[in-house]
Amino acid sequence: MALTALVHDPRTDGEPDGWAAFTARRGLHSVWDYGLMRLEAWLARNPAVLGVVRDGDRIAAAATVLICRPRWTRRFADAPGGRRPGWAEVYMPWLSGYPAIVFDPDLTAEGRRAAVRAFERAVLRHVGPGLLGIAYRSVDAETAAAVSRPLGRTWRTDPTTVLANAWPSEDGWLAGLSKERRTSIRRYARKIDRDPTLEVREGWGRADADPHELAALINRHRARLGIARSDPRTEVAGAFLAEFVRRPDVRLLTYRDADGALLAANTLLDHPSSTVLQHWAARPPAEGGRHNLYFDCYLRCVRHLVSAGRAELTSGRGLLEVKTSLGFSTRELHTVAVPRPAVGSLGRSPR
User: Fold this and answer.
1) 3-state secondary structure of 276
2) H/E segment holding residue 37
3) 182 FRET partner, CA 20 to 30 A, in 59, 73, 212, 285?
4) InterPro entries given for it (predicted)?
């Protein structure tokens, strides 16, 4: 196996040959679309690039990588091709709980580690001698094994939440919840459906929403909950959402009051094997928001899960106690940190 790797900057480089075929073969979510990656990168303080590993002409592995700089540096990213000291985060913005490095299913364990070596050396060439290290975020145990090494450090992070689809209807899901939770969800749904002062709209590929209003709500919600200092992402941009929510595999759910004010919103990423409850944002009741819209959103997401026959619904890494009460289980995640001396020097897989 003779692997080659190249880093593509979506801001300046064309889509890699065979990229659409690879994403279809691997069943990747919509955020891996190269056009969306280009738009997000232009708007991000830490723009993502795409590392592609090939075995001949065939793509064998790929990873999205945020080239990060300290928070005290200026707000905007360097121009394409810029070289400043920083580190690389293998991380997919706005897709919580999924690894940002993916492999062709035909790769063996040794093949995966060879692909990681080739990928890391390409990142080192792209960033230059100022690279401080590489961190792989939100990876499962199998992926962690492929990227870990003696000089690196691996630790568990907050798990992601998963609801496996095991019911013919939403009633089956509700029947498995506690009586108190089941009763309250049904009561909330009836109250919302009968409220003449509340407009609820949901649809796939919606072009009617104001993306900047939506972005403002999401960013306020994130800021109110607290953004970790280690989070490398920029605020979500309205220009990105303008394209994103128009996709046919993205459902936008919105709640508005009688005056048209946006109270809450959710984006749901459709996927045959793993549908994603992605963004959720709401005004707090003290600022005119409504109680219990959160639970109504989950009811609608589960309704799609079972009616479309999807395998599972994932819902990120927060509010574990609440999500457990809604029937979710957890999936273990890890972070693997690789210091500069160990970048590209991955050994053979453990025996």
Assistant:
1) strand
2) helix 34-43
3) 285
4) Acyl_CoA_acyltransferase, BioF2-like_GNAT_dom
pLDDT single digits (tens) 264-314: 999 999 999 999 999 999 999 999 999 999 999 999 999 999 999 999 999
Question: H-helix or E-strand containing 119?
Answer: helix 109-127
Q: What confidence tens digit (pLDDT) does each residue in 19-64 have?
A: 999 999 999 999 999 999 999 999 988 899 999 999 999 999 999 9
Closest CA to 67 of 80, 52, 56, 54: 80
List all residues 6 or more positions away from 84 whose beta carbon is below 8 Å from its beta carbon: 69, 73, 78, 130
pTM, 2 dp: 0.91
Closest CA to 126 of 5, 3, 44, 7: 7
Pair of tokens at residue 292: 């219990």
Do residues 128 and 83 lie in contact, with contact meaning Cβ atoms separated by under 8 Å?
A: yes
- Tokens 């707090």, located at residue: 284
Q: At what angle do helices 179-194 and 293-307 cross, to 10 degrees?
A: 100
Report d(CA 267, CA 278) in Å as an integer: 5
